[in-house]
Write a structure and sequence with these properties.
6 helices, 33% helix, alpha+beta, four-stranded antiparallel β-sheet, single chain, 2 domains
Length: 166
Amino acid sequence: MAAALAGALLPAVALPARRFADGPDARDSFPFSHYPMFSARRRAHYRVTHLLGVYADGTTRPLHHRYLGTGGLNAVRRQVHRRVRNGDGQVIAEHAAALLASRDRAEDRGIVEVRVVRGRYHLDAYLRGEDREGFTRRLDLRGTAPVPGRTGALGTTAAAGEGSDR
């Protein structure tokens, strides 16, 4: 009985796939998607420009994209990538540091410095849920700014270059 049911369901699922030839009237249907978003080959590494917050002890963590600009994540990501490529990394870091200080969110209160970095990440490791050290391949510093009104280690104001670039 199970074999007969499987024998009937398999062609019902597989037969629609023949419609998905590369042609002008090809149509898409799950699970046989041909949209590039789902079917395109991806490189092993992915580069992203983003913000890192630095704590007084030198540890870092990514900051929310809302400190970079308004709009959705992908729109902000594209705008920031373009601006950093044009040399505005320092300006972006200073603006984000001022926003971070003015918004005074509880989870961001310990951050004394903001860095704009361009990271190279290993996608497979990230998607497997490995820790940050497992998927971060390289971080290039593109701008850094102390958070106004916050002090770094030993009561000194945070200066550019302090902390670790993990």
